[in-house]
Amino acid sequence: MSTTTIFVCGATGTQGGAVVTNIFKTPTLKAHAIARDLSSPASQSLKAAGVTLFPGDFNDEDSLRTAMRGCTGLFINLMPNLADLTQELAQAKRLLTIAKEVGVEHVVYSSGFSVDHPERRRHYNPDGFVTKVLLSKQKVEEAVRSAGFKYYTIIRPGNFMTNMLAPHVNMMYAGLVEKAAITTAFTPDVVLPMIDTNDIGKFATAAFLEPERFNGQEFEIASELMGFEELVRALGGVMGKEVKINYMSQEEIDAQIPVNPFLGGQLMMRDMVDCVDMGKVRSWGIPLGTFGEFLERESARVKATYGI
Ligand SMILES: NC(=O)c1ccc[n+]([C@@H]2O[C@H](COP(=O)([O-])OP(=O)(O)OC[C@H]3O[C@@H](n4cnc5c(N)ncnc54)[C@H](OP(=O)(O)O)[C@@H]3O)[C@@H](O)[C@H]2O)c1
Predict the structure, then answer these.
(1) Which residue, by CA, sits nearest to atom 6 of ligand 1?
(2) Is 136 in the pocket of ligand 1 (CB under 6 A)?
(3) E strand spans, 243-306
(4) Given 98, 205, 221, 229, which is the most exposed site by the fewest CB atoms within 10 A?
(5) Are 220 and 275 in contact (CB under 8 A)?
(6) For the stretch 135-163, what's the b/e string if a residue is b when 16 or more beta carbons lie within 10 angstroms of its beta carbon?
(7) Of all residues in the chain, what percent carry a pLDDT higher than 90?
(8) How far is the CA of 182 from the CAs of 207, 238, 260, in angstroms?
(9) DSSP H or E segment with residue 39
(10) Residues 88-112: pLDDT tens digits?
(11) C-alpha 250 to ligand 1 mean position (Å)
């Protein structure tokens, strides 16, 4: 049986880690990855799981060339650098050029909701923090699309369930963990397309296994749609107390956005649910996780986050 080797970006992180986990469920798939610190616990567990791990950096061509040799698939997930918004595209182009050189056939890029058309969102703000992130990814999407690989796939994941765990929750929802209270730019009727990052791993792996079916496909994915209040109630259940929600007025939001960019993010997320077609997501036949299952699977991190 012939094997297919996938170069997984960010394997020590959330999305890349989920891709590796799912790749290893198929005996014919192997994974190569780089890490900036080979001695970190995340690197050690990747090695133990069977990933061929190389020292490297997205900014270092030679390390990427060495690590990507022998790979026919490339999973791209990059971090936007708000201090230098050209970096994400530069890293993507570097990865794509080397991937071409070493014979990669299929590129799967994990992007973000409505990256192709952010201007269609109700609270689109051309100067906003979220817009900058989306436009940075838009350029990467275009680079992937036009790079001329035999197969390409763009998946656009929704709101990560991991955002509700440390360290993210403490930045994104200040007050939730320590005071059981959230002050938010959401409205009571907001519905969030939540994604278990493990499902990103499932979709990416499925794409590598069925390149013809996924070729040229670009689509939003979510695991479960959850009302914001339903999500808060679920977290209150975890904490064993009721979480108080303070909905901000538009004037309060406008005044706070310059010092708290996450509020701009919440404003944009008010109509996020309109971007996803769950019928289409389910039509791929990939089993989707739920927030309840996520909390159970990640119970150690949940306990550490909420001090329970
Ligand atoms: N949070 C959400 O709801 C959401 C929704 C949609 C899309 N996204 C997007 O998802 C991305 C974040 O993904 P994630 O949560 O998987 O990130 P993450 O957990 O923070 O992992 C980042 C990974 O990238 C690696 N990395 C960063 N810079 C590197 C470099 N210069 N060279 C080599 N490796 C490098 C890190 O490696 P080290 O171990 O060396 O640090 C780590 O493995 C962002 O682009 C974000 O916009 C997020």
Answers:
(1) 112
(2) no
(3) 244-247
(4) 229
(5) yes
(6) ebbbbbbebbbebebebbbbbbbbbbbbb
(7) 96
(8) 38, 15, 14
(9) none
(10) 999 999 999 999 999 999 999 999 9
(11) 31
